[in-house]
Amino acid sequence: MSYEVKRDFIGYGANPPDPQWPNGAKIAVNFVINYEEGSEPSIELGDGYTENGLTESHGLNQLKSGRDLAAEGMFEYGSRVGFWRLTRLFAERGLPLTIFGCAMALERNPEAAAAIRAAGYDVCSHGWRWVKHFELSEAEERDHIARAVASLEKTIGHKPEGWYCRYGPSVNTRRLVMEHGGFLYDSDYYGEELPFWLTVDGKPQLVVPYSITNNDGKYAGWMGTSDQWFSYICDAFDMLLAEGRAGRPKMMSVGLHQRLIGHPARAVGLQRVLDHMLQQQDVWITRRVDIARHWVATHPYPGKGLNE
């Protein structure tokens, strides 16, 4: 019987496994830059409207023309300015990054793609374009996955090892990602703080969960200042680190968007978060692919029966 997405309200339960992070670390932290600018819906790309998600634009120009020049500029700020500010903060501290890369977006900024390659950041495919995969037919989604992989192989120099949808996945996404092959993991899940295995059509699939909670998307909602974001992210980090030291180590994903936290008044919050984490002991700040590789080596697939 073909794989079906099933809900699981139990997971690891009261006794999650010890991840055995390298060097005895009590928390693994992964920072992700979502590189989306240039792949979003736009008049230019024939979509009939301008995407304004995670920007300060409210779509006022769309009422008549469908085109929002304010939102377009805000997206362009992300790739023109925000990317360089964020990567500089990490480079100055010698810290790694993961890029959730929309393939078309990276095609449109070869300089940024070259910088990603040179820095050794890992790239997790964020799709071919910023589209709603759950609205695609199975054939369309299969094509988008193939296009994304082929494109990233050209811009980054190798195939992506992870997959993460923009918007939520469809019920077919994980199966189609595995059908395409070549992916070490997917991150299309928000319900856990440790990686875990699934069995999909008799084959193992590693899930490295992501977080929209520990995310600069809060700046597009109720949060206004860098102090608020710093406090919010550090509270999560401090609790997870304390739990890890008490015998329950976890991982923490922190999601960033160039057109949001790339602005100076917001980037200050990220700067403070990085410095706070660097002052602590027992912390492994790492790439997403390294978490996946560690899990494969330390907690190998236990065999059929999972999610079947």
Outline the structure in words.
Belongs to the polysaccharide deacetylase family. InterPro entries: Glyco_hydro/deAcase_b/a-brl, NODB_dom. This protein has 308 residues and is an alpha/beta fold. The chain starts with 26 loop residues before the first strand and ends in a 10-residue tail after the last helix. The mean pLDDT is 93. Strands 1, 2, 3, 4, 5, 6, 7, 8 and 9 form a nine-stranded mixed beta sheet that branches. Helix content is 36%, strand content 14%. The protein has one domain (30-298): TIM Barrel (Alpha-Beta Barrel), CATH 3.20.20.370. The longest helix is centred in the first third of the chain and has 24 residues, at 69-92. The protein has helices spanning 69-92, 103-107, 110-119, 138-156, 173-180, 226-245, 264-278, 288-298, and strands at 27-35, 98-101, 122-125, 162-163, 185-186, 196-200, 203-207, 250-257, 283-285. Helix 4 (138-156) crosses helix 5 (173-180) and helix 6 runs parallel beside helix 7. Strand 6 (196-200) and strand 7 (203-207) form a beta hairpin.
List keywords for this structure.
308 residues, alpha/beta, TIM Barrel, nine-stranded mixed β-sheet, 14% strand, Chitooligosaccharide deacetylase, NODB_dom, Glyco_hydro/deAcase_b/a-brl
Q: How many strand segments?
A: 9
CATH architecture heading: Alpha-Beta Barrel
Helix count?
Answer: 8
Shape: globular
Alpha-beta classification: alpha/beta
Low-pLDDT windows of residues: none
Q: Give the integer mean of the pLDDT values.
A: 93
In short:
The chain is of the alpha/beta class.
List the helices and strands and how they pair.
Blueprint: E1 27-35, H1 69-92, E2 98-101, H2 103-107, H3 110-119, E3 122-125, H4 138-156, E4 162-163, H5 173-180, E5 185-186, E6 196-200, E7 203-207, H6 226-245, E8 250-257, H7 264-278, E9 283-285, H8 288-298
Parallel strand pairs: 1-2, 1-8, 1-9, 2-3, 3-4, 4-5, 5-7
Antiparallel strand pairs: 6-7
Helix pairs in contact: 1-7, 4-5, 6-7
